[in-house]
């Protein structure tokens, strides 16, 4: 994957970063087209091959396709209302859950959320490669999700992902912005922008 030193993140992503990254966005309108089971399997396989601290693989996913109406509606019901409004179009919802303790030792895994996020990033890149898009949501009731899906102690519901093919008419929101590289890439001392990104 090519890196860029030239892209201004104040602008829309365009040239300079890999097309799989540039083409990713978070739609609020999805096509009603179901996601093929083999593609779903590929997404979770992509998540599976993520790196993780101690190779603990602390990610867990509870997925609900629209055809399984009962489970789908249960997961949908955990979303805050503004998210539920648009996410109900998505053919698949996925609850992303972190395992908080290591398997190999009874101690907290400080990187559990980090590793779950990486696995979702892998899944998201794979989704883009398959023409799918994912809109991640923190706006959901984690306690309700725990209750509704019998999530045991030691596991934390972290996010819900809305997955599907974007609606043909939908396009990334105009004016998507990012911080400038100099605001978060430092060298030598905190806050001193690295020369390579200037
Ligand atoms: C952990 C996380 C939580 C998010 N929560 C919400 C949410 O509750 N509702 C929403 O509409 N978007 C949510 N988003 C989507 C972000 O707003 C979106 O990724 C960001 O604005 C950048 O837009 P882009 O993904 O199209 O590049 C979330 C994204 C992440 C990664």
Shape verdict = globular
Structural class by helix and strand composition? alpha+beta
**Would you identify the CATH H-level superfamily?**
NADH Oxidase
CATH class: Alpha Beta
Biggest sheet details = 4 strands, antiparallel
Multimer state: single chain
Structure description:
With 198 residues, the chain is of the alpha+beta class. Helices cover 28% and strands 19% of the residues. It is built from six helices and six strands. The protein has helices at residues 19-22, 37-48, 69-76, 81-87, 112-129, 142-148; strands at residues 59-65, 92-99, 133-137, 155-164, 186-187, 189-193. The chain has a four-stranded antiparallel beta sheet, with helices on both faces. The radius of gyration is 18 Å and the shape is globular. It starts with 18 loop residues before the first helix and ends in a 5-residue tail after the last strand. Residues 1-11 have low confidence and may be disordered. Bound molecules: flavin mononucleotide.
